[in-house]
Amino acid sequence: MAQRGGEVAAKRTKLSSGDAGGVGEDRLSALPDDLLVLILLRLDTAAAAVRTSAFSRRWSRVWALLPELRFDPAPDGRALRGILDAPEAAALRRISVTTEGARPESAAAWLPAAARRLSGDLVYHNIAAPPMSYEEEEKEAGEAVQLPCFEKATTIELNMGFLGLALPPQGVFARLTGISLRCVRFRSPCELGDVVSWPRCPLLKKLEVHDSRGLDNLVFIDSKSLLLIKLKALRSLRKLILVTPHLQELSVIRIFLHLDEDPSEPVANISAPQLESLEWNEVYDPQHVHLGNLGQVQWLITNYFVVYGSPRSRIVNRHCLRLLQRFQALYSLVLTLVYKQDINDLQCLMGDIAMLPQIRFLHLTVLNQGHAFGASSFHLLRMCTDLRELSFGLHANGNMDSTCPSGCICDQPVSWKTEALVLNHLKRVEIFDMRGAEHEVTFVKQLFIWATVLKKLRIRFNYRVSESKAREFCRALAGSSRPETSVEFYMYDVSTSSTYLLEPEGHGTGF
């Protein structure tokens, strides 16, 4: 055995001796460049690939042939710039850099070198905790990172960790098709709209800006190429203008956070005649939000609707109702119902929803805080008699044992349990985050009565629900479904972070 170990060691010595001193046989280095590149691509990071240059003169140039470089975590900015600026380095189809709490000067050191080398995708993620207050933001602001013009990049994804970013005042992103900006503190002199509009981004298809600061006044985008725009949590934007004749998907979420209930001038003016999908989780008053022709929209996500509330809640709900009134027919509608914790002294506002567009797919997100949601759901479903598919996302508070206080009004009027409702087109229903409460059992039983041609019901339990609780829920539904309806129950396994089908007890329908 000892002799065998010596032979293995001797072979390893020959394989790794390289041409240092001219001793031994370096078979690995004799492989073609393309095979060596495949080997290096399997290393964890680009820094590890660069370190292989110490093996031999043969290896000193191989890492420079890599088409992709990934640094996680990245070395300091100067060292990274040195790697990207290496004279033997080839053009890159992807550069991925991850830093933690980087300062502006570090990012500024390597980005120009990346712009010279890159002919593909750039991903930069600076991990940093968000500032806690406006004062802290100003204190931590520091100098802005000057973003160079990536003339040959195809996509750019930047998560700046709330570092300041100055956009390039000139240059054309000639090949750029997608840009995603997150946790950015925008700095002058160049505006976002100037950069992403035609002609500086002639091929841009996708634009995403999330959780960012500094877009205080106006974002004006004029693009003949954009197909998708997603804007979320931009803190203090005052006006949005889009001239996008080919835009297909628009998502606007909490970008006018500074506005009073009655702004003095328009806050949005959007021209997108080919728009098919609209998510508008924001104020909506036709006097101040001009959405143009929405005749092509088929997928709509609205602002939330408060089920029980005060007169002020009714003002908030008005934004959702006004948008719904813009449509006569949709393929898909996503609507969020919100229940407050204590509702007994509040007024039920569901009656304010007097109509819904004709829809085929309805997704209800219900933030119910443990309250029964059957009465409010019934109110909506009786306006959806052409419904084909129904999806429920249930989100109660974190306490699995939470129940309504005695005499809670959440299940009123109780007549919803006996009134006739025929959903004779509804074939598929899926319910997420089920907790096994009694009011959930009641609602599912009513679904079996209403949906006369239901083919499939799929229920996914909340990850905190035990298997015994889930089986108790199944037994409570026993005998309620029609023979032609397939019913499936899914549990979540925390240990494997996956779902599994709950097998039926004994034989039969799965109940």
TrEMBL record:
From the UniProt entry, list the residue stretches annotated as the region Disordered. 1-23
Question: Can you give the residue ranges of the F-box domain?
Answer: 28-66
Pfam families (alphabetical)? F-box, LRR_At5g56370
Provide the leader sequence positions: none
Enumerate the spans annotated as F-box/LRR-repeat protein 15/At3g58940/PEG3-like LRR domain: 149-280
- Please give the name of this protein: FBD domain-containing protein
